[in-house]
Amino acid sequence: MSLGLLHASAAFALDVERVEWGFDGSVVKMSLNLVTIEVANNSPTPFEGDVALQEGSGLVRSDLPLVERQLYIEPFGRRRLQFFPFITEQWSEFTLSWSDRPEDRFPISSQSNSPLRTGSRSVVLLRDASTSRQLRSKLPTFEEVDFPISAAGMDALRGVVLDHVPRWDALRMQALRDWIGAGGQIHIMKSATGSYPQFPAPLEALNEPSDHVSLGNGQVFHHNMSVADINDDFVATALGIHRVADDLNNRGYTHYDYQFQPSNSIAPLLRDLTRPDHNWGLIYFLSFIYLLVVFPGCWLLGRRRADFRISYPALLGAVFIFSLAFKTVGQRGYGEQTAWNAVGAARRVAPGRFLTETWSNAFVTNGGMYSYKHKGEGLIYSSGGSNDTRRGECFNRPDAGIEIEIPPFSSQMIMHAGVVAAPDFDLTFKRAVKDGPSLQLEAELTGAVPQIHTMHAVFGNYRVMLTRQANTLTGGSPSPLANYTSSQPNYGYSPYRNVQNDPTTIFAQAEAPLVVRSLKLSMDSPKDELSAPEGVVRVFLYADMPAEFLQVDNGPEKRQGRMLYTFDHKLEGN
């Protein structure tokens, strides 16, 4: 028996060989962040089972675990795993586990094992492991073999430097194309032969020889130099990486503005849309009567009739009767109808393809385990930093989804990101000229334009409302962006806010947190004020959410939502 137990123990043993956070060793707070973990099965027995990354020590968790289902590793084999946890705190700790035994847990980040470093969005040199490059600067490098298979979850990456065609499959090629279209910057250098690399489909647009060309919301730059010629001046001027003396210790948000956390701003609004209108007066009255029945009622009965055969059944009967009463009263108010409400942000990455980040609220009337999966590619799921300790899991891609226990007549916040195919909708810029604090803007809506509720643009620290005539948008007088953010009642969640249940009002209030989140993710320095990226005008169109973004397996029929579409364009003028 001892030999059998030892053999079984060895069969489930894994060794963690490598852990890499983000693209340059740091993470961006309030975002989905990449973590690459390489595990090895150093035993003669195959490993087959679930591997989970969870926040916390492994004994007590504060969020839903991310699970790689039915991982198989042959004897003495290795596997590279990638997870995308939503990180809210710099001191967050994560644990990798592959069974319920304490010895099968590995601390990914803790005070004794490389605590997280937060930073701004990274710019990295994409490196082929088979070649060696000697750099004259401290430009971070990232192994191309670790590149994700989808643009979802790559908000922490701002720019890529490349001098060759990566040896990738079709998924990673498409992921790079989608990431550029969503707003990424790619810097193409000359190869060792002195020529620019020639990219196959779907990256054929990178073969345009111009020094600078826009590709969707992103930018493509060609530099007449090789990677070996990159120096600190190029890193600072062309790549926009500005280092300070304490860069490694004080990177990222140096303050605690929790208003940027979706669980504190967007989630309460969505919950209000399906908040049951319970008869709280009757519930409080029943609670008071229940306490009186238990004590002193049952206590007096026990003193008068000193017989446990009477007092114990009386106590159990009171518990049973009042449980039924609370269940009946608690079910009243909402009409016993499930609902799905969502808001999100979307970027057009290619014709008919949108990179989305969505927050959904699922309201249920019957308690139980619920499994949800949205339409899309490369999906990532999370509870969005809501510190949810309910029983459940987020399954890793490619077959990504979420399974969670939801009590009756309550709701659950779900965050997910992915690339969704939907009817094409675009904004073509005809004029975008900045003249001091003024903006001359003209753009045209094309394609299957959804029902738009609000339209505005941000450039620098200014905001301008847009006017629509037919499908042409024009700008008006600018105002400080700070005036907009400070005037929003739910920009930072307050427990003393006025609770609303009107969908029009609630969806309107959810726009400001989405706008602020979009701008915060685009800031290269956390010390800057809220602003659009330098030299760019960002247009926000807040519209009804098309049905393609609301398609979810096992979801209720009643679904509604709003989508914040963002479009970037290079500014002219000064």
Total of DSSP H or I helical runs spanning 4+ residues: 9
Percentage of β-strand residues: 35-45%
Helix and strand content put the structural class at alpha+beta
Major pleated sheet: 12 strands, mixed
Give the overall average pLDDT: 83
Q: Give the uncertain stretches in residue-range form.
A: 3-11, 245-259, 490-496, 522-528
Q: What is the C-alpha radius of gyration, as a whole number of Å?
A: 27 Å
The percent of residues in helical segments reads 10-25%
Characteristic terms for this protein:
globular; alpha+beta; twelve-stranded mixed β-sheet; 31 strands
Written account of the structure:
By secondary structure, the protein is an alpha+beta fold. It contains nine helices and 31 strands. The strands form five sheets. A twelve-stranded mixed sheet has the order 19-22-17-16-30-28-25-26-27-24-23-31. Strands 9-8-4-5-20-21-18-29 form an eight-stranded mixed sheet, with no helix packed on it. Helix 4 packs antiparallel against helix 8 and helix 5 packs antiparallel against helix 6. The N terminus is likely disordered.
